[in-house]
């Protein structure tokens, strides 16, 4: 192949890769002029700015401020609003008093189902500003409803607006609405807007108890301009423990719907830097680009009959937007691919283009690249955490320089592939194509059986088969034809190279390295024509080194990339001892002022107040005992009736606290009631570490607990009471963090924690 086609075809592949990402998002224009009947990102940003001024978790002062702001904005639109208030503990044993905000737009249809727009207004306790999660969702709904109302069109279906509360504590606001509100029976479909980062494309993820075919057909009919959705992502989503408010509607109310959530820049999630400035404007525009066409479509469509027993494979691709086909096509498509491959093999042997010995040799570079790139990808994150211990303190599992690592290991994988096929350049191309096709065929067979959502993997194989046919019948195929045949693989798979480690953490770099290798296999009909594969391997490794150097230069912490830090004061009122404690693995200078020795109290670490990822204290140091008021625990009942021991107690805080957590010894709880809310039997049978209840306290409210146990059961309670005021409490003189540090998310932080034991004779 001549030099010019090589450069041009490489540029075309790079351009196709770029375009596969470029079409995922609209482009925000700060100076845009948007008419009143259209969604304006600038107008939505004003809401985000107001909502995210302060942390506004349940029980925090700004929580009421944000609720009042949203209510006032809905009233400005001429909507009558109401508040739904009540205690709920959800399915996780997290008790809180939720206050949902509700409004309704009346439709012209007398009967039928209503469309519900959903997001939550509470931020994660205790330091998150919640600009993305989920200020962006609230702002999207406020601006979308404003634009919709300005069209002066009367929808056929009622439109219910639910801005839920206490989502961060266990989906409590959604649980309250689904269990207690009379409007639930009228809801036919939910559109939920969420975030798990501060940027990137917003993924559409469906929630359905049955098949998805009607939902995806209606979604395609609504025709959003930038759909980013695929059945593989939803298959993975269903396997993960991450739930949203919409999950409650599906599980408890049998109401289906769509989630729209962005996941990039995951390091901002639940942190102090989830702020107005860091929210990606293109991402917010993307949320609006979903809402407006879907609001127009589903406010007029028949949404009373969206349930289906059939499933569809679906995926987005440039130019075609969404492609969908039924699961019933999966096996026939796989069978056709196998049949065509066999026919081409027979043709190749008859024409003496294919040779068994050379085909077998073709497996060597395939297996070599898969093993090398697989091992490098699998161990990369462990190695990075060993080289940079502070990465262990980023509990998100995705570092500020994470994208540089994705680029670096993708380039390493390419270098390995180019090198392997440089070494086996003497084998005829047609023979080299057999082994990678067989590998891909095995993958497609496995997903067709075990992961049907990924069945669209078969699509690029058809292009590969055409390229295989061309190589069997032509000695020097046209390079640009081979580029064209390779583009489906790039368009469909390239975004996944980034999506897996972004969505699941850098531990999934292995998915990037292996997927890059597999994409390379699909481009082999073109790549084998390159004469300078050795040079391309060298260039790839050189660029890998360059990105690793860049990542190293940005591995430290700055004001824009602050280090997560943690500090707690823990007072054991039973033993009258106190400790400083931290969750940091690599101590910051700020924390080292108090954690002077790297000791670990194993008893305190293993059983203490719970955290999202089960994190334990890493280091503790003896601290001075302070006069911290402990809660008043009043035993109101302890009696045995019909062989059942009933115990009732009331815990009343004597200081402003944010969180109360109660653990029991190893004892079977037959029934439990907290503040009038009965804990589910499933929760009681699957309590982790003996945790009974976590109460996120508002307004110094008491916690009233009633327990039923078997007669003769010995009961011991451990009560943890926490306030997030360590840096403000007058009993302490904790200096503020440096600007290159933030409170660590997902764990109790900046807190004064008391421990109190209650034994029942």
Distance between the amino and carboxyl termini: 88 Å
Overall geometry: globular
Largest sheet properties:
14 strands, mixed
The portion of residues forming beta strands comes to 15-25%
Mean pLDDT: 93
Question: From the helix content, strand content and strand pairing, which structural class follows?
Answer: alpha+beta
Unreliable runs: none
- How many strand segments? 23
* Helical fraction: 40-55%
What's the total helix number?
A: 23
Compute the CA-based radius of gyration.
29 Å
Brief digest:
This protein is α+β, with helices and mostly antiparallel strands and 761 residues long. It contains 23 helices and 23 strands.
Blueprint (SSEs and pairs):
Elements: H1 3-22, H2 41-51, H3 61-76, E1 81-88, E2 94-105, E3 114-120, H4 131-149, E4 159-164, H5 172-180, E5 187-195, E6 199-207, H6 213-222, H7 231-239, H8 245-253, E7 257-264, H9 281-298, E8 312-317, E9 321-326, H10 330-350, H11 356-361, H12 363-387, H13 402-423, H14 429-432, H15 434-450, H16 459-473, H17 479-504, H18 509-522, H19 524-527, H20 533-553, E10 563-565, E11 568-572, E12 577-582, H21 589-592, H22 602-606, E13 619-622, E14 632-641, E15 644-652, E16 659-664, E17 669-674, E18 677-678, H23 681-685, E19 691-696, E20 703-710, E21 715-723, E22 741-743, E23 751-760
Parallel strand pairs: 2-19, 3-4, 3-5, 5-7, 10-22, 11-23
Antiparallel strand pairs: 1-2, 2-4, 6-7, 8-9, 11-12, 12-13, 14-15, 15-20, 16-19, 16-21, 17-18, 17-20, 21-23
